[in-house]
Specification:
alpha+beta, 8-stranded antiparallel beta sheet, 29 strands, about 20% helix, elongated
Length: about 475
């Protein structure tokens, strides 16, 4: 044991052991107490002449409920969060929960008295290598992880037991027609420690089976790809998707992958790899390494192991290599704003590459629309196109939004988000009866007043003003009071 500093607010101390064969393990603990709440930082250093498989075990009390993430965990007692732990390492790691196991070895037990064994949680962190450094932050307040309710069993969160554990939420279809499809939703980048999902309301309301997978690796995600060059995260996501399809009795043709920004990149990569029937992507990052270089070097370092030019270049190639495998049976649609830097720096290079490889990608470019505003339009894009998949029409839908409300009897108005140079015509149906039609117009809003109460939907026809061919699609049903 070696004492480094003793301060008014805490101390720093190092313990070292060489009892492991050809291996030295050092642990430095630094404790600070600010405003009466201790903050504990730990650095584990492992040095060895040979490569070994290592385990760090965190034993948890039997009355505490852990929620495990990619590189850490939260602890709850009586439904209240009391502590969390997050670490970063310079090697690939896997984190898993074990309780009361006897095979292949005893793991997850507490011995309160001689001859008495009680199952108790233990968190195991595994890694392989010769040398490794792991920095751990334990917090009793001002937590590393934002509590997103994963400890609440009524919300339905689950965790896979594969090589890499995944936290996911599986939502059953709300309608019989929706039960023919599975939508897998990938999340965008959020603040460090905030791991959540996107577009849940829009996808759930569409009626299909839905799968929301958390990208809670590192401190800000991994693009559902890798950990220090290891692609086990990617493989685990593919296994989860395949398992859900099998459980639901669906095929890859029934799979829809969904996401915007980082989630769009993941939706494309995983959708192509799974040979999904449909991919819906909003403003994806294509040159992922170059994008991460400045605003998110932490994510780059986690995925690749460093931030070198070589790693940036390799990560930049991932999306293009995915397009090489794009099947003719997979319909990939990208929507992006003309005012979004993703359009010029990411989407256009991908479109040019796809054209050179004779791969088909449907692109919708909306006027203006910076990256910060892609979410609201993409929600409509997702809802509209999942509806087409349920109908089995094969149509490509433009995003649209309802402008009228239940407080406006007899009124129905819809805004269609169209690229420049387009015009729209509409047929309005009440149940199965055609009640009105409009001629082609560049105006992006269709509206009616004085309609009888009932259920309505529209068949919209979008065409380029310079062409004769129109692209039709059917809206969902709307109730008019």
């Amino acid at each position: 044991m070696e004492s480094h500093t003793v301060r008014e607010d805490g101390y720093s101390v190092t313990g070292r052991t060489e009892r492991l064969r050809d291996t030295t393990h050092s642990r430095t603990v630094n404790i600070r107490e600010a405003s009466g709440i201790p903050e504990i930082d730990i650095e584990d250093t492992v040095l060895s002449q040979d490569q070994h498989n290592y385990e760090l075990l965190w034993n948890i009390g039997p009355d505490v409920e852990p929620v495990v993430h990619g590189q850490g965990f939260e602890l709850f007692h009586g439904g209240r969060k009391i502590m969390d732990l997050q670490f970063d390492a310079d090697v690939a790691t896997t984190t898993s929960l074990h309780v009361g196991e006897k095979s292949p070895k005893y793991l997850g037990w507490r011995f309160p008295a001689f001859g008495k064994a009680v199952p108790a949680p233990v968190i195991r962190i595994q890694f392989t290598g010769r040398n490794a450094r792991i920095r751990t932050r334990i917090r009793l307040g001002k937590f590393n992880y934002l509590d997103r309710g994963l400890h609440d069993k009524t919300l339905g969160w689950r965790r896979t037991n594969g090589d890499v554990g995944l936290n996911y939420l599986s939502v059953p279809a709300r309608t019989t027609s929706g039960a023919t499809k599975l939508a897998v939703v990938f999340s965008a980048i959020h603040q460090p420690g905030d791991f959540t999902y996107n577009y849940k309301k829009s996808v759930d309301e569409s009626g299909v089976h839905a799968l929301y997978i958390l990208d809670d690796f590192g401190d800000q995600g991994s693009y559902y790809l890798g950990d220090h060059g290891d692609r086990a995260i990617f493989e685990s996501v593919q296994q989860l998707i395949s398992g859900e399809l099998n459980r639901l009795g669906l095929s890859v043709r029934d799979l829809i992958t969904v996401g915007s920004s980082k989630g769009a990149s993941a939706a494309i990569i995983h959708g192509i790899a799974a040979r999904a029937g449909r991919i819906l992507a909003g403003a994806p990052q294509v040159n992922i390494g170059s994008f991460l270089r400045n605003p998110h070097p932490n994510i780059l370092s986690f995925i690749m192991g460093d931030t070198s030019e070589s790693s940036i270049s390799r990560l930049d190639r991932v999306m293009f290599e995915a397009v090489d495998s794009l099947s003719e049976e997979t319909r990939l649609s990208i929507i992006v704003g003309e005012g979004d830097h993703h359009y010029r720096n990411h989407v256009l290079p991908l479109m040019e590459y796809a054209a050179a490889q004779s791969k088909q990608i449907r692109l919708t470019v909306l006027p203006g629309l910076p990256h910060a505003e892609i979410g609201s339009v993409f929600r409509s894009f997702v809802s509209a196109n999942i509806h087409q998949e349920i109908l089995g029409s094969g149509d490509e839908a433009m995003p649209y939004s309802l402008l009228s409300s239940q407080s406006q009897p007899g009124k129905l108005s819809l805004r269609i988000h169209m690229p420049p140079g387009r015009e729209v015509a509409c047929r309005l149906y009440r149940d199965s009866n055609l009640v009105d039609r409009t001629q082609y117009s560049p105006v992006d809003t269709v509206a009616w007043d004085g309609l009888a109460a009932g259920r309505y939907r529209m068949r919209l026809f979008i065409r380029n003003t310079a062409e004769d061919t129109a692209s039709p699609f059917t809206t969902r049903w709307f109730s008019v009071p």
